[in-house]
Structure formats: C-alpha cells, structure tokens
Amino acid sequence: MHLVIDGYNLLHAVPELAAAERRGKGRDALAAALRLYREQKGHRITLVFDGGPQGRPGRASLSGIPVVFSGGEKSADQVIAEMAARHGPGITVVTADRELAARCQAQGSEVIASWEFAPRLMSAAMDGGPKDLEEDEPGWNFTTRKKGPSRRLPRRLRRRLRRLEEL
Fold first, then answer.
1. Which residues, in sequence order, are CB contacts of 166 under 8 Å at separation 6+?
2. DSSP secondary-structure letter at 91?
3. C-beta separation of 17 from 27 below 8 A
4. Does residue 53 sit in helix, strand or coil?
5. What's the CATH number of domain 2-130+138-166, 3.40.50, 1.20.1540, 3.30.1330, 3.40.91?
6. Where in the chain are the domains?
7. How far is Cα 60 from Cα 58, in angstroms, rounded to an integer?
8. Residue 75 CA neighbour count, 13 Å, CB half
9. What are the residues facing 111 on neighbouring strands?
10. How many C-beta atoms surround the C-beta of residue 120 within 10 A?
11. What is the pTM of this model?
C-alpha cells in the first residue's frame, strides 16, 4: 500500500506532534513517527507539505521518509490531487480536508481521515517494533450460517474496511 500524507493536516491531528510543531520540530517529529510506522507495517509512504526551501517545489527526505514540497505556486492539496489523478486506486490519501478527499475519491483513490490514522501512527511510534499476533484473535468460526450478498456491506465500504485493517 502506498500512503500519501497531507503533512500539516496530520501534524495538527496528533496532539504530541502539534506540540512539537510549536517548538519548531513538527516536520522532524512527524517523519520520525512515520519511519517507525513504516518499519512496523512495511507500507510505502510519501509526505506532502506546503511551501518548501526558498518557496520552490522540490523533494527531500526526512528520517528516510520521502517528502514532496509544493512550492509557492501550488498548495499541498493540489500536489496530492495530481498524485491521485496519476496513480488512481494505487494510493491511499491521509487527510481531513473534505474537498481534497472528494477530489481524490473521484480519481479512485482511497481516503483515510487524519483522525482515523493518527491513533495507528502513534501506536506504532510508541511500540517501536513489529506486533506479534494477538492472543485473542478469533480463529475458525464453526458456524454454518451463510453470508450471502444480502448480508454484505456495499463494495465501497468493504474496500474501505480492508484498507483500514491494513493500516
């Protein structure tokens, strides 16, 4: 899975990272948390921020996480929407911006709200390592009750739930 993250949007959704932003270390703290998340989950991550060095668009790396700066001409939302148009269903966008979410969903990309992703990110950052299988995981369900199409959630919701489980 390839996650494209609206950097400042996620930064302000996590209280610990927002506090680091007030001290001028927000980008670095977010990148460090994402690095731990990537090590645990193995997802490909691209972080997108508004602005950039000298107001120019560009690319960089923070704690090993690829970062795209939008520059002065475009906003991070425009850059993310262009990535969604280019890659379509191949990416999952993390943002709380409703307009951006609608634009990305129209291109076929999955969208996860920042407030939904934040607990997963901080859990991975606090654990600092891969999780073992949970002991209370349900095993085989021995029921013969059938689940036909009438009991299924719509395809869009099933796909969204699968993406959330992968996070």
1. 1, 41, 43
2. E
3. no
4. helix
5. 3.40.50
6. 2-130+138-166
7. 7
8. 8
9. 93
10. 16
11. 0.72
